């Protein structure tokens, strides 16, 4: 830790609330003391102090010259135990959820905002159906249908012998085999429901503080209420979006979406069973055919109801919504599961003469899903352009198309994972043959569309090499160009060292690569959309005949496609195995677990607004924790508070400050360093962290200061200018390293710190001291008879009113 910064004697008690960033930190490291004590919270997230600072409020005279440091540790919310490594398998759902929050800002356009939310939720619904359909493909088609019909397959895998059609056992009937195999996707859907429900209770059930005393705002359209399906406009909250009372408590929406997606999963399994039996029953009219038609109609009806539930209501943030769904929505999973059971009983009904042949009609389902996802992404892009057009910000990622591009990436990830599992299982069951390739005799293979999708993976990787090579060349040229600027910053004309200069210049050049991320995302998304359309066209042109994926094409094209398909099949299979291996490694390796945690630190900041099976939102626990702590401490002590956030911690700090009542915000200063508030969040989430939102944050908080380095690949300036008598938030860029060569103060070469150890820079202590000086002096407060301050009890009128509203 840096040395304490003197504070004015008249300032009174002061608290510095430290919030760490990605990757986590221990209380001992944050407080620079091996003896720390947890003062509030639990093992998942808690506030810590030095042991010697426990009674700081009782002895303010001891801390007249420095603030009391307090650390909030939240790393266990994302990287606590090895089981969370399995969240890697939920990556497509998390990416789809991010697309919801990437919409461009909108003023007075509630219809487009609501349409944007509906389209993203529909994309998320297709991902659930795709995952379940892939499980059905593996369990029902490849294993219970194709492998069980092949004597060579059942002989090679003896544990599948009881399903063999040639043995004539009880389970050898096709319907019974399919019903038994349907347990796999049904259990998968149940597991996703359980995880979603459990993680909500563990991570997101913390209610935000209640009792807001904002002045009444001028009536205007509340876009979030419109997204929630409200019939008439309501007065908007005067706070920005992240400061609304219900922003960090989405229980009702998550429960609603969880019911819809669970029902969609069960209905997908029921549709797979009903379609398989219906194809046979169509050749033998009778009661079974009529019952099958009724069941298929029921599945279609419930599917339409699921779509209606997903489209009907989005997030409502203008109030803290504590209601629980007691309508038909809560019955959807149970009704869908009951329909699945009825369909299973119907499918397992004995049908003499029914034998396995070819493959189940999965091509139609996968083709329809691919076309639906492509159409939804294109429609989402059109809506995003319409929202962006009136107020285009040149720094917005992909000119407002970040949401559609990320939604396309979510579909691509789900397709690769689903196709990878199907390709590997087919290859495993089929022996030495290549899945989807036509050889003599029947072969076990996935739908033709998956073979075509595998063939475009190498093409996509080749396309990525072009921008990657250009960025590498540009980085080298930028490093050369920055040499003169580095020597000028350090005034190193007399001690010029080409090696040292090159290291610093290269660090700055590499850090600038972060700003090129939109280019790569745009290339991958655009190429994925075009290649996906080509895969559908190729599968349609080949007649969707398994084992003849590239028939009818020119011999040269067929040979090239066959080679790329084989390479792609192995690549996606290898990628999936690498995915699983990395997840297993995280059970034993803390460093691997920490790396995975960094992914979730960035990806799961946002509430689950589009996909209920995404990894849980840690901010719905962390933001209320910070808000409650700042409110209770300032009310009980009347003192000054600096909330100091590094990296992702600065985003949590800003979100918590937005949630504070105005009387509390007037006693709080915000210090951010290594902050991605504008560089990442402002560009990719312009509706919530855009220029207007950050300027509004500067106007609402008492004072704000931001530190950044040119060598930092994550943090950067927040670009909030001076206005209304307030100074600019960004100061001068910090030099990194602090010394060019050896000096008396730095006898050893200083390292290039990049994104870490901002407190080691002397400018940090100076900037924190300046913030404390700008805060108003402490307010008088009552002490309890024992002399303590009554921590957590409000002692002003605003606090009492707020507590009364909370208890009510």
- State the end-to-end CA separation: 43 Å
The pLDDT mean sits at 82
Total strand count, please? Answer: 7
Low-confidence stretches: 1-10, 212-237, 434-441, 782-808
Strand content: 5-15%
Strand order of the largest sheet: 2-3-4-1-5-6-7
Fraction of helical residues: 40-55%
Shape: globular
Query: What's the Cα radius of gyration?
Result: 30 Å
The total count of helices amounts to 28
- Biggest beta sheet summary: 7 strands, mixed
Strand-pairing-aware structural class:
mainly alpha
Structure description:
With 808 residues, the protein is mostly helical. Helices cover 55% and strands 5% of the residues. It has 28 helices and seven strands. It has a seven-stranded mixed beta sheet with strand order 2-3-4-1-5-6-7, sandwiched between helices. Helix 4 runs antiparallel to helix 12, helix 12 packs antiparallel against helix 13 and helix 13 packs across helix 18. The chain is globular. The two termini are 43 Å apart. The N terminus and C terminus are likely disordered.
Can you give me a brief rundown of this structure?
It contains 28 helices and seven strands. With 808 residues, it is mostly helical.
List keywords for this structure.
single chain, 808 residues, mainly alpha, seven-stranded mixed sheet, 55% helix, disordered N terminus, transmembrane, transmembrane helix, AB_hydrolase_fold, Integral membrane protein, membrane
Write the layout of secondary structure elements.
Elements: E1 14-19, H1 27-31, E2 36-41, E3 46-50, E4 68-73, H2 76-79, H3 91-101, H4 110-147, H5 151-156, H6 174-181, H7 183-204, H8 223-227, H9 251-281, H10 287-312, H11 328-347, H12 362-388, H13 402-430, H14 448-455, H15 457-481, H16 483-490, H17 498-511, H18 517-541, H19 555-588, H20 590-603, H21 619-637, E5 640-646, H22 648-659, H23 662-665, E6 668-673, H24 677-684, H25 686-689, H26 691-700, E7 703-707, H27 762-774, H28 797-807
Parallel strand pairs: 1-4, 1-5, 5-6, 6-7
Antiparallel strand pairs: 2-3, 3-4
Helix pairs in contact: 3-4, 3-13, 4-6, 4-7, 4-9, 4-10, 4-12, 4-13, 7-9, 9-10, 9-11, 10-11, 12-13, 12-18, 13-14, 13-18, 13-19, 14-18, 14-19, 15-17, 15-18, 16-17, 19-20, 21-22
């Amino acid at each position: 830790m840096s040395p304490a910064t003197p504070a004015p004697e008249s300032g009174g008690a002061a608290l510095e609330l430290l919030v760490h960033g990605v990757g986590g930190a221990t209380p001992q490291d944050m407080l620079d003391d091996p003896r720390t004590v947890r003062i509030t919270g639990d093992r998942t997230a808690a506030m810590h102090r030095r042991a010697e600072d426990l009674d700081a409020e009782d002895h303010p005279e001891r801390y007249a010259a420095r603030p009391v440091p307090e650390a909030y540790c939240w790393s266990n919310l994302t990287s606590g135990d090895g089981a969370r490594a399995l969240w890697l398998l939920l990556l497509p759902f998390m990416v789809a959820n991010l697309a919801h929050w990437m919409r461009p800002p909108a003023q007075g356009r509630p219809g487009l905002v609501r349409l944007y939310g509906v389209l993203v939720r529909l994309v998320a619904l297709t991902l659930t159906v795709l995952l379940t359909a892939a499980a059905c493909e593996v369990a029902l088609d490849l294993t219970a249908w194709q492998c069980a019909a092949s004597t060579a397959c059942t002989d090679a895998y003896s544990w599948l012998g009881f399903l063999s059609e040639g043995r004539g056992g009880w389970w050898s009937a096709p319907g019974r085999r399919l019903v038994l195999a349907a347990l796999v996707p049904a259990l998968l859907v149940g597991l996703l429901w359980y995880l979603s429900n459990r993680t909500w209770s563990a991570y997101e059930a913390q209610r935000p503080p209640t009792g807001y005393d904002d002045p009444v705002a001028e009536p205007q359209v509340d876009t979030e209420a419109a997204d929630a399906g409200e019939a008439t406009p309501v007065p908007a909250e005067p706070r920005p979006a992240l400061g609304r009372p219900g922003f960090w408590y989405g229980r009702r929406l998550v429960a609603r979406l969880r019911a819809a997606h669970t029902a969609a999963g069960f209905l997908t399994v029921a549709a797979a069973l009903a379609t398989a039996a219906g194809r046979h029953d169509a050749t033998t009219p009778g009661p079974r055919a009529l019952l099958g038609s009724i069941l298929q109609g029921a599945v279609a009806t419930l599917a339409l109801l699921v779509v209606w539930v997903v489209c009907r209501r989005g997030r409502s943030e203008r109030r803290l919504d504590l209601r629980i769904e007691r309508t038909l929505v809560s019955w959807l999973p149970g009704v869908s599961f009951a329909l699945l059971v009825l369909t299973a009983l119907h499918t397992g009904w004995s049908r003499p003469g029914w034998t396995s042949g070819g493959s189940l009609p999965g091509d139609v389902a996968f083709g329809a899903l691919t076309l639906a996802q492509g159409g939804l992404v294109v429609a989402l892009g059109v809506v995003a352009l319409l929202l962006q057009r009136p107020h285009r910000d040149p720094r917005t990622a992909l000119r407002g198309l970040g949401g559609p591009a990320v939604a396309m990436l979510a579909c691509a990830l789900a397709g690769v994972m689903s196709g990878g599992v199907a390709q590997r299982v087919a290859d495993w069951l089929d022996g030495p043959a290549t899945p989807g390739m036509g050889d003599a005799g029947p072969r076990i293979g996935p739908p033709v569309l998956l073979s075509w999708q595998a063939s475009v993976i190498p093409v996509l990787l080749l396309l990525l090499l072009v921008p990657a090579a250009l960025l590498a060349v540009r980085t080298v040229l930028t490093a050369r160009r920055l040499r003169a600027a580095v020597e000028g910053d350090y005034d190193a004309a007399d001690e010029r060292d080409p090696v040292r200069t090159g290291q610093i210049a290269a660090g700055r050049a590499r850090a600038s690569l972060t700003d090129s991320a939109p280019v790569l995302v745009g290339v991958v998304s655009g190429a994925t959309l075009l290649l996906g359309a080509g895969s559908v066209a190729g599968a349609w042109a080949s007649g969707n005949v398994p084992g003849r994926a590239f028939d009818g094409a020119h011999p040269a094209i067929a040979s090239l496609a066959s080679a790329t398909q084989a390479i792609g099949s192995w690549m996606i299979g290898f990628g999936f195995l690498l995915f699983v291996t990395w997840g297993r490694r995280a059970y034993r390796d803390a460093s691997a677990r920490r790396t995975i945690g960094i992914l979730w630190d960035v990806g799961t900041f946002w509430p689950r607004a589009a996909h209920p099976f995404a990894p849980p939102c840690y901010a719905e626990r962390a933001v209320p924790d910070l808000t409650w702590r700042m409110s209770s401490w300032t009310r009980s002590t009347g003192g000054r508070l600096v909330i100091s956030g590094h990296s992702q911690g600065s985003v949590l700090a800003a979100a918590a400050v937005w949630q504070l009542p105005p009387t509390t915000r007037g006693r709080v200063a915000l210090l951010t360093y290594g902050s991605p508030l504008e560089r990442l969040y402002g560009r990719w989430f312009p509706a919530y962290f855009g220029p207007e939102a950050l300027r509004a944050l500067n106007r609402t908080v008492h004072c704000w200061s931001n530190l950044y380095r040119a060598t930092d690949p994550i943090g950067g300036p927040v670009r909030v200018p001076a206005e209304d008598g307030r100074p600019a938030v960004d100061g001068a860029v910090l030099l990194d390293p602090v010394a060019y060569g050896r000096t008396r103060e730095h006898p050893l070469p200083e390292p290039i710190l990049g994104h870490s150890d901002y407190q080691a820079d002397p400018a940090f202590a100076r900037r924190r001291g300046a913030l404390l000086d700008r805060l108003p002096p402490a307010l008088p407060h009552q002490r309890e008879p024992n002399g303590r301050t009554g921590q957590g009890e409000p002692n002003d009128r605003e606090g009492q009113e707020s507590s009364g509203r909370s208890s009510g």
